[in-house]
């Protein structure tokens, strides 16, 4: 069976300096592995302290390539490589209006906020009230005050601020929720783990004038999307 082995919870011992060293090493590694390419995403990953988005008893594992459990039902902070894996093909860039479905820890929203800069906007939604409150606290403590945080079913998107240049869905769905495609700009891109015959594929979709074009990037393993378009009903 495919799955992740989560390390055991423990009292954290690492100091800030050690995390800083680990973060620099991780960025170098992600570049050499070919995940991290763009300067803006690289700078964002160097800037955001990932350990501040991780529950206390898993903090020491911040830079391990494993998803770590978050407060709430079936929520995780994704592995470090997941962020360039999603944001590089999306071409997330300065000035973009970005929607994230699956706020989780808030780390992905913080990275996106650094990438889009003050000319852009980040909107992020989580369905789980406990996970949502955890992310909200993390983002506040890290000094992010202008990310639009929404608690609810992200399968419906957030029409109020649409259309979006880029959309990222961080939970696995059976099909991409139609409201998200509707809320994407023409020329915009969306990325999501999509389940087919029990296997999850990371799919990149580009919205054209009267059509959408999609391509599979690789196989992945994410928690299930919940709510109206959820895959948790399988
Ligand atoms: C892999 S985690 C997200 C990781 C997150 N991007 C981060 O940086 O920590 C997936 C998240 O999707 C959320 N989720 C699942 N179904 C959802 C839905 N329909 N709408 C919004 N969030 C949903 C879960 O509660 C979970 O927090």
Question: If you had to describe this structure to a student in words, what would you say it looks like?
Answer:
The protein is an alpha/beta fold. The chain has six helices and nine strands; from the N terminus they run ααββαβαβαββαβββ. The strands form two sheets. A seven-stranded mixed beta sheet has the order 5-4-3-6-7-8-9. Strands 1-2 form a two-stranded antiparallel sheet. Strand 6 (164-169), helix 6 and strand 7 (184-196) form a beta-alpha-beta unit. Helix 2 (39-47) crosses helix 4 (107-116). The model has no long low-confidence stretch (mean pLDDT 96). Bound molecules: S-adenosylmethionine (SAM). S-adenosylmethionine binds at residues 72, 75-78, 101-102, 104-105, 107-108, 125-128, 131, 153-155, 170-171, 222-223, 225-227.
**So how many helices?**
6
Low-pLDDT segments, ≥5 res? none
What is the average per-residue confidence, as pLDDT, rounded to a whole number?
96
Strand segment count? 9
Portion of residues within helices: 25-40%
Enumerate the distinct ligands: S-adenosylmethionine
Radius of gyration (CA) equals 17 Å
Main beta-sheet strand count, sense and barrel state: 7 strands, mixed
Strand order of the largest sheet: 5-4-3-6-7-8-9
**Strand-residue fraction?**
15-25%
Oligomeric state of this protein? single chain
Q: How are the SSEs placed, and which strands pair?
A:
Layout lengths: L15 H17 L6 H9 L20 E2 L6 E2 L4 H9 L6 E5 L5 H10 L4 E6 L2 H13 L6 E4 L12 E6 L8 H5 L1 E13 L2 E9 L4 E9 L14
Parallel strand pairs: 3-4, 3-6, 4-5, 6-7
Antiparallel strand pairs: 1-2, 7-8, 8-9
Helix pairs in contact: 2-4
């Amino acid at each position: 069976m495919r799955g992740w082995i989560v390390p055991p919870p423990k009292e954290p011992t690492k100091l800030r300096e050690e995390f800083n060293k680990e973060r620099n090493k991780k960025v170098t590694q992600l570049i050499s592995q070919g995940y991290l390419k763009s300067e803006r995403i690289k700078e964002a990953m160097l800037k955001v302290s990932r350990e501040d988005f991780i529950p206390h008893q898993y903090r020491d594992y911040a830079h391990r390539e494993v998803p770590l459990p978050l407060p709430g039902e079936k929520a995780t902070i994704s592995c470090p490589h997941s962020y360039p894996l999603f944001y590089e093909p999306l071409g997330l860039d300065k000035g973009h209006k970005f929607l994230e479905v699956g706020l989780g820890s808030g780390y992905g929203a913080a990275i996106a906020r650094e990438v889009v800069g003050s000319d852009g906007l980040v909107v992020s939604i989580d369905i789980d009230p406990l996970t949502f409150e955890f992310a909200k606290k993390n983002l506040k403590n890290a000094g992010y005050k202008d990310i639009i945080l929404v608690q609810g079913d992200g399968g419906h998107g957030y029409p109020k601020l649409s259309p979006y240049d880029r959309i990222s869905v961080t939970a696995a769905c059976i099909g991409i929720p139609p409201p998200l495609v509707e809320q994407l700009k023409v020329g915009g891109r969306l990325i999501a783990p999509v389940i087919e015959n029990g296997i999850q594929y990371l799919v990149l979709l580009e919205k054209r004038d009267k059509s959408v074009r999609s391509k599979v990037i690789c196989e992945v393993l994410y928690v299930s999307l919940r709510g109206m378009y959820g895959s948790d009903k399988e």
